[in-house]
Amino acid sequence: MNQATLHQLKVFEAAARHGSFTRAAEELFLTQPTISMQIKQLTKSVGLPLFEQVGKRLYLTEAGRELFNTCRQIFETISQFEMTVANLKGLKQGQLKLAVITTAKYIIPRLLGPFCQMYPGIDISLQVTNHELIMDRMMNNMDDIYIMSQIPDNMEVTYEPFLENPLVVFAPLHHPLANVKNIPIGQLGEEPFIMREPGSGTRSAVQSLFDEYGVKVKVKLELGSNEAIKQAIAGGLGISVLSKHTLLTDAAEFSILDVENFPIKRTWYMVHPSGKQLSIIARTYYDYLLEAAKTINEQGIIPPHSTFLVDRSE
Ligand code: PGA
What we know:
Elements: H1 6-18, H2 21-28, H3 32-46, E1 51-54, E2 57-60, H4 62-89, E3 94-101, H5 108-118, E4 122-129, H6 131-139, E5 145-148, E6 157-164, E7 167-172, E8 192-196, H7 201-212, E9 218-223, H8 226-234, E10 240-243, E11 254-257, E12 267-273, H9 280-299
Parallel strand pairs: 3-4, 3-5, 8-9
Antiparallel strand pairs: 1-2, 5-12, 6-12, 7-10, 7-11
Helix pairs in contact: 1-2, 1-3, 1-4, 2-3
The structure holds 2-phosphoglycolic acid.
2-phosphoglycolic acid binds next to helix 7.
C-alpha cells in the first residue's frame, strides 16, 4: 500500500459508495477513464481485485469491503484533524459544508451573503439536492449541517426547527379554478398533475395526503426539479404541489389554488448527526441561521442587511 495515494482512496471510496464509476466521476468532477485508471493503480498496490462486475452491477470484493471500511476510518480521522485545525484558526479561515433540500435553495444562498461578508476567509460548499440524497450524504458524514423537512428516523440526529415550508397547489395564472374557494381535494384527480421524482420529500408528503383522502391524481409528467415543474405549469401542462418558497421570485406568474386540506404544513429543520462535533465555523453558522429565521418569522421577509449576525470573531 506504500504506493497508494489519498486521492486514489478518495476515488475508490466514492466509487464503492455509489457502486458506480460514472456516479463517482460526477461527484468528484473527474472523467470516467480517470476513475478507472486510479482504481486500477490502487488495485495493483493492494494486490487483489477490489470490485467485481456481475451483469451490469458493480460489487465490492472482500478486499474491497475491507478497504472501504479502512477508507471510512482514514477520512474520519482526517476530518477530525481538519476540525482541530479549523478550531485553532477560529473564524478567520476554514470551510463550511452545507447540504440543503431543493426548496431551501430559494433562501439559504441569500442568507449566505451577509455571513460571507462577515467572515470572508471561510469557503462555503453548498449542495442542493432532494431528501433521499441529503439522507445519503448525512449517512456518509459528508457535510457539517443539513437542512431538510423530514427528520430521519433511522439515525440519531440533533435538530432544530428553522422555518415553515408550506406546500401549496400551484396552477397557471388563469386556471379555471383560480378564483374558486374551498375546492374539494378530490377534484385534483380531474386535473393533469405534475409530480416530483421518487426520493423527493415534497413528493412523499403529497402522496401521503392523497393516500389519506383516497385521491388518485393523473400524473402527466414527472420532473426532478421545482423550477422545471414551474415552467411546465406556466406552459399549461398541468398543476402541481410545491413549496410556497419556490414562488419567491415569480409569484405573479402563478395562482395558488384554495384546496381543502392545503397547505400541507411542513417545517425546515437544521440537522446534524448527534455524534458529530460541529466546528466553530459550523456552530457560528448554525446560530446565525437561527437568528436569521427569527427575523424572517417576525418580519415575514429575508432581511436585506446583516443586523442578525452573531459576531464570534473575537
Ligand atoms: P425535496 O425536498 O426536494 O426532496 O422535495 C423538499 C422537502 O422535503 O421539503
